[in-house]
Fold this protein.
Amino acid sequence: MSEQNEQELEKNTLSRRSFLKVGGVAMGTVALAGYSNTANAITGTDKNTNDSKQLSFLIPPPPIKDSQIKKTVTVDVLVIGAGVSGIPAAAIAAEMGARVHVIDKQSTIVSTRPTGFSCFGSKRLKELGVMCTEEEKEALVKDLWGSQNATGKFEIIKLWADKSGEFADWFIPIIENGGIKVQVGGLFGYYNHNKTIEEAQAAMRANPLSVRDSYWQFYPLQHQFGSSNIPGVSAWAGPQDVDWLSILYKYSMSKGVTYDFTTSAHQLVREPGWEKDPTKRVIGVIAQNAAGEYIKYVAKKGVVLATGGFDYNDEMLKAYYPIGLRMCRTWQRWFTGDGHKMAVWAGAKMDDQFTSHVMGTAAMAKAMKSKDKIMPPEAQAHVVPWREWNMPSTPMAPCLWVNNLGKRFINEEVGYFMSATTIDAQPDHMYWGVWDSQWKTKIIPHHMDRLMDGNDSDERMEANVKSGMAIKANTIEELIKKMGVVDGAAFKKTLSEYNAMVEAGKDTMYYKPKKYLSTVDTGPFYAAQMGTSYMTTCGGLITDTNLSVLDENQKVIPGLFAGGNPAGGFYGNIYAPQVPMSLSGHSMTFSWLAAKNAVSGV
Ligand SMILES: Cc1cc2nc3c(=O)[nH]c(=O)nc-3n(C[C@H](O)[C@H](O)[C@H](O)COP(=O)(O)OP(=O)(O)OC[C@H]3O[C@@H](n4cnc5c(N)ncnc54)[C@H](O)[C@@H]3O)c2cc1C
């Protein structure tokens, strides 16, 4: 994202503070059409904990009066959020003949472009003859649900497995007609060390479940954007390969979808009396445009919430994902939980379980120690972060990790993807990756096993040292001195014990597999301090398998659907490490289904 876009984003993002300010101005002058002033269904009590302390995001703002509405727009389906999940929803609804309108609070489409999406049973997988049978589906769904400690909603996980292939078969031709290739086998081949996509696909055919680590089975469901023949990086070739959202955006308009940007949805409109009568429909939304005017969008067939996560709503984070407040956030400042809040004010129930797509350790200490803890925006909002941010990838590979006490704390094999919670539990919530001058033979071969880019070079290593992102020293004593905060005596003891275990060929402390064991004994030595970050919050609103949002009594709120990050139930208390890219895969599938259901009157 360019600096100009970033500024644009800042300007147009309605932050939580400015939201409250608008609410404050609105108080006493504006009342929300369709809401009852008493809003008895929502007490402001945190229903997850029965804590009587008021959580302000659960309390509905004063209603906006009909007399304040400048304009009313009537459509069949209204989609809130022109992002990864909102645009497919709008496009399919328009294809089905509905009048569809999308509103977004940004001045243009700003969403992160995921580099791929995971789907089960697509034509692409059927062509390979992998991950497309009923038996494979059953095993996958059971594994996902079981590994979440049964905290997700089984039927929601199964819904994704049942329908995501159908979604992919609709989606892929649109994107490929727009000039961006979609390939399967990339990530599998990346982990499997295959040299080409063809080689990876042949290996997948032979045994699709051959890739696993000490903890998780990897399911090769990733459909990646881009035409490179090199596994994994196919999707990361460049902006031309991944700006698929613009293709879909144009496609949706060709089908008649209309958009209002710089228009922020504030409050859903539900027929009066809903507190006592759950059959009362959500009939639209009141939004505010750049001129400050209130516009009422009436949606005859349904409203689809596709407003993203709540990463930048500190109060919601504190309530549902408290360690997120200590971690770094990505730049997605539009993630203020607006859709979740609006739905709750209209009677919806939030999921009891929350997780986050924890992007483990991919945070430089510099970002971690900064006041706002925001990862710097990428040059384009889609590429592998550590390359763009010029971060060393070696300290996120299975080298030696120690905390400030100078002790190991994890099997480093876990790598960047799932380690954040364990790192968060260390002093200062950070760790040091330590390696030696032989990193090209000791570490680089294993970068790819752990989703590292494996692209550290002499130049990059030196650049990282020069910029202070990594430390280089001729002796261990000098390294300890430069690390500063680490207990030197304990670190030396750890190092000699670790080297002895490597020599003996067995990590008796954390069971790191032998192939990842390598000594740290040949200077010059390196260390880099790393923190934690997360990509986005996932989940929130409880839905049924039609993606209809449910109320406190598990009754459907007619007319209200959720897709994308606001739709709960899929992850339970863990992001599925077995299926990287399930986030966009389930986000898009669910919003697409939600829109179809809205049009067909489910
Ligand atoms: C660096 C990075 C890389 C990623 N890569 C992948 C990947 O490869 N695979 C994967 O599966 N996932 C990936 N993800 C995660 C994935 O991109 C997001 O989870 C996904 O974008 C969520 O889609 P969404 O539609 O819910 O939200 P978004 O795409 O962010 O869309 C939400 C939209 O709603 C709008 N909005 C919010 N509130 C309002 C309001 N009140 N009124 C009007 N509009 C509103 C916002 O402006 C925004 O445009 C990545 C995330 C990051 C940060």
Residues 116-242 form one domain. The radius of gyration is 25 Å.
